[in-house]
Amino acid sequence: MSNHAVLATVDEVPVLRAVVEHLIPLADEARRFVFVLCADDVGERVAAALAGLPVVDRDDDEKTTARCDPRTLADLRALCWALATIFEGQEDGPFVTELGYLNLAPRVVASPDRAAVRAALVRAKLTVADAAELTAGRPAIDDEAAIARAMAPFEEHFAPEVAEAARAWLEGEDGTIPAVLREAESEYYGNPAEVVSDALTGAAERWNARTSRKLLDLWIACREGGAHLSLGLGEDELPPELGVDRARIVATALEVGGLDPALAVLAAKHCQGASTWYLAQTLLARPAIFTDALALGREVGRELAAAAVPVMGPQYSPSALERLRAFVASRSPALGTEALLKIAELLPDAVDEGHFDVAAEGAEPLELCKLARALEEADASRFAGMLRRANERWMSAAEPAAMVAQLREVQQRDDTLVDADVAWSRLLERLANNPGDPFGDGPEGGAIMNCYFVVEALRAPTGALKERLVALCRDHGSALGSLRRPLEKKAGIKPPPAPYVDADLKPLPEALAKAWKAARKKSWAAGVRLPAGATEATLVAAEKALGSKLPAELRASFTVHDGAGEDECFRGGRLYAIGEAVKQRAWLLEVDGAPFDPDWLPITDDGAGNHACVVLRGKDAGAVMDFDHETGCGRRLAKSFAAFLQGANWE
């Protein structure tokens, strides 16, 4: 049955009790205050019924009539927000609501007189329930059902001997996990640790103590590489949580099984349910756990610290923020970029450059730059220039090829995090030292391509940096290879006139001449140097190998430019020279794979085995068609080579 209101005290809601015991230490009297929860759409009726009682409203000072000291009021409001999270999300019951999604409007009556609160609501013809009735839990799964659930994935996905060993172990006395079970593998699950996701319900309050203990022991023994922390508990039967401290049940069970307390907390954070919001935060009262976590690895400590920053209600509590401030003041190495990003929003004055320096150790460039910007936004005077400092720090520490790859990644994710002056300074230093191989992975290495995109995205340099760039292009132009033109563009250097003579286009059909005139202009601006045309002897030899004449338009095109060189610049691929096209056709006709039409000639290659092809003969002669290496001959790309050429982007 749904109710208009639910009554609770701190000690009646396990999650709330844990938050108060560890994070928001209310006075004994305040712990006995009555919290009233209702759906948002009956909030006004509940508020009217409580008129005359000392009420603390979560959102509105004007509706707060309780006389409490400011700190207690703030703490109580924070706990109201927490309750709204802990009990939210039930589609049907236990609250009366007409809303599609349950939004709660909690408030607290600053009195331990539960009877008076209930009577006021009943007089207003509102139905009332106690939280204890809702959070009493559901019956545990019996042995037979628990074992049947656990056996299902073993019987379906593992060898019979593994399933047999699993059943004997689950039904037998406690003892060592059999080696055949511990070392088992399956294509679907990998190792038995993955079985836990289907063998245990995510509703930890329903676990069968004996069977769940064994399954958790199996997970602890078999989890991948000793670091995998996601239990992946099945989501069936999850609702309602309604204040049950599901995450703490899981963490405690893992810790009892021998898992390190820090890892137990992090594993429980992966579980479903509102209580996961409050699990790690209560650890602020146990600072030693962060030191222990760091002993397992810097990333473990930092993940735990990030999860411990108060959220979902307690971030409004003076008591919770006081504990957080003490943790920040400890300067723990666990305070990495993720934790400090949250702390900079809550307590910007508690963070200083020393915290930034500690967090920077081992931090990803993107996260370090996010933190630097957040600090600048939180306190522009204290953290002026922090983003530039972050850029200088990671760019100077990274190996050259890694630096340019990371620079591109940061640009792609958020280019406002890149300090262009710092980036140009580092790039120009590398390019001047070795123009042909600035990043140490060869002139055709992936770092060159990354640098190309980085340069394209960077704003043009100014002042002394521009002068350095101009000098680089002047002194080492040809050695810069594919980087030459984008660097010249950023330096403001106009390309010399194209070396092509338009007179050689006059013999071409009008559409083809127009297409090549435009292509020459675009390709030259993009830094592509088109080769000379094929000789008549070369074309005759190609036609002999093909066993047919080339379509007139395509033949005429090859006399002007024999392909587009080695650059993958033509519509995202390479434009073949005639000799390459003939060889590629022969290969496609012989290789196993999608059948290739012998009446087609491939003219481009996208690097992944797909081609644009010109039809050599028949009613569609001269048309450009698509060939996919997996599916074969496909759609028409253009009615003619001239039309296909006209659509090239040369990038």
Automatic annotation (TrEMBL):
<dbReference type="Pfam" id="PF09346">
    <property type="entry name" value="SMI1_KNR4"/>
</dbReference>
<dbReference type="InterPro" id="IPR037883">
    <property type="entry name" value="Knr4/Smi1-like_sf"/>
</dbReference>
<dbReference type="InterPro" id="IPR018958">
    <property type="entry name" value="Knr4/Smi1-like_dom"/>
</dbReference>
<protein>
    <submittedName>
        <fullName>SMI1/KNR4 family protein</fullName>
    </submittedName>
</protein>
<feature type="domain" description="Knr4/Smi1-like">
    <location>
        <begin position="533"/>
        <end position="647"/>
    </location>
</feature>
